[in-house]
Amino acid sequence: MDFLKNRLLTIILVLCLVLTIFIGITANNRSNEGAIQGVINSVIAPIQKQVYNAGQRIYNIFSFLSSISTLRKENIELKSQIQDLKLKLIDYEKIKFENTELNRLLQYKNDNNFKYISANVIGKVGDNWFNVVILDVGSNDGVKKGCYVRAADGLVGKVVEVNSTTSKVMTILDENSKIPVTINETGDDGLLIGSNNDSLCKVQFLPSVTKADKGNIVITSNITTNPDVLVPSGIIVGTIERIEYEKINLSKTAFIKPAVDFSKIKKVQVLVK
């Protein structure tokens, strides 16, 4: 009986010892594992942080590049839209200008002695683009050589060549134009010719005693040498810029700024007898 008690006690003591050793070993292993894990974390964590930061930067770069690509596409589309709007604005301004010019032409009171043929300027020829212009009307429309042509602001010139559907007009800027005119304020007659200047023409053979002065208005005269062409009087030609004395022929020459802006002329009327 005592033997059994001693044996049981021994077994209990052994079991307690084994359990104590197991707990110690287990605790020691966990401590070791924690230490190892700490070492691993201390090594890997900085690398992991750098990898994360690098990945974030790469993502940001790709996002930036993607946004640039999107902005470029939007910029191209906006430029295209702006170009379309510019073209529409140009067309609008062109139509507006032509309508204004046409309305001003229609405001002229018709003279029973003339037939008014509306025309468009479709071309310009010669060394100086403003010396000769081409109209989209011709003999089929009743246009004849020598007919005067006017725009909304004043005299353009006269017809020098006629085809069936087009005609050429020599403008008052051409030195060969030679159109009889009158100084409105003084009644002095002279001969209008071009001056080889893009912006001025001149009136020759004014009387040496003329009272014409700067700012006076020059208008067409009804003097003509061609009985088949009826010359309209009173069409504004321009205004006097300056007057010079010509010693050779004992007369004065007036330099005229045309009333018509030949760089913008689009709509005209041909005056037919």
From TrEMBL:
GO biological process, one term: regulation of cell shape
Pfam family, one: MreC
InterPro entries: Cell/Rod_1, Cell/Rod_MreC_2, MreC, MreC_beta-barrel_core
GO CC terms in record: plasma membrane
Keyword list, A-Z: Cell shape, Coiled coil
Family: Belongs to the MreC family.
Role: Involved in formation and maintenance of cell shape.
Listed name of the protein: Cell shape-determining protein MreC
Source species: Caloramator proteoclasticus DSM 10124
